[in-house]
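$ run holo --ligand "flavin-adenine dinucleotide" --emit tokens
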Amino acid sequence: MVSGGAPRILGDVFCGKDLLVRTRVAIIGAGPAGLLLSHLLDLEGIESVLIERQTEDYVRARVRAGILEAGTVDLLKQAGLGDRLAAEGMEHRGIYLRWPGERHHLDFVELAGRSVTVYGQTEVTKDLMDARAKAGRAAFYQASDVVPHDVETSSPYVTFVDVDGREVRVDAEIIAGCDGFHGPSRGAVLGGQDWERTYPFAWLGVLADVAPSTDELIYAWHPDGFAMHSMRSPRVSRFYLQVRPDEDLAAWSDDRIWTALSARLGADEEGWTLKTGPITEKSVLPMRSFVSTPMRSGRLFLAGDAAHIVPPTGAKGLNLAVADVALLSSALAAWLRSGSESLASAYSDTALRRVWRCTHFSWWMTTMLHRHGDDFDAQLQLSQLSRTVASDAAASELAQNYAGLPLSI
Ligand SMILES: Cc1cc2nc3c(=O)[nH]c(=O)nc-3n(C[C@H](O)[C@H](O)[C@H](O)COP(=O)(O)OP(=O)(O)OC[C@H]3O[C@@H](n4cnc5c(N)ncnc54)[C@H](O)[C@@H]3O)c2cc1C
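-- output --
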């Protein structure tokens, strides 16, 4: 079944498939990267077709990231996606860093001249999907066996089986691989190289229907492990606890979660009370840094989690996906509208400079804040935390990276 407007359907005569579709850009994956790319291309007058493995409802409901860099907010507003964001997004000036006996506020506006905005990835996805529905753009949801073909030629195409069991072929000028870490696009990059770091810990992520107990995010180092108090709205809070990668979710009752959060976030020590409420979602998130290079192979371009994963400590995953797509949409517009390939040729190198910077920042925040190693490592972490809040230069470095670096660095 095709959702949205009808793609140009050409019939089955030439390709031995049940359905042949032609478009300019075939986008695999309807996460934030794929949805935003199709939206930005549409603004440039370039037609695209989205091919997504999951149902539309599943994509719409997925709970993930929640912090938008200033540049991400600007881009979404410029793309006409800013109404709900302006009304419901919560602008934050900074974060708290805490460890036993200490709590410090880092003011990003003072340190870096930029703020961040709390607005859930689920809300960004809803805005993008609503814009798609309004514009009547085509998408295939519940597509299986999705495969990109002939990406090194000038006539690449994607094949898949649609929800009704029909074999479909989408011919395109460009294929955009926005299909996340587990999608098929990365494997189609010729001579690709993977760079990876897995961490010996994971996050227990908790979503709760309770008002935040803090005005800004708290990042807490604790002898029992890292904890974080984040939020999604004035009525919904998001919490994380450092746990083992093979942690059994069943061992974490709601009571145990609230007790651990209260202790690690320092509520008991600082004399405040962590508000509790119904927990609506719990999951264990593995922590990994991963970069795949290059981000282009012929007419296939990778964007977002298809090319890189960061541990969520630095709140970079969603923002990196948006930055990739901002670069890619301009590059494809220049190529497809005026035949200039220079931005497309530079795309992988330009995007990877920012990707590696954010990969380093996310690794640094993760390494500083999570208990790992021995007691000597713990003392080094505490020394680094003290230095980060005591030195304007160190605090500014964190603030600039967290609030977001320019698109091209
Ligand atoms: C559980 C979880 C929690 C996270 N929490 C945070 C957080 O707190 N903070 C933060 O900054 N970041 C977080 N992230 C990272 C952030 O959500 C991602 O960086 C962001 O979603 C990247 O967007 P994307 O569109 O590139 O990839 P994705 O959102 O992964 O989208 C990829 C899309 O491709 C589709 N797809 C996959 N395989 C196929 C296929 N074979 N055929 C067709 N379609 C396919 C998927 O269904 C999906 O819709 C989290 C990620 C996960 C997985």
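-- notes --
The CA atoms of residues 18 and 167 lie 5 Å apart.
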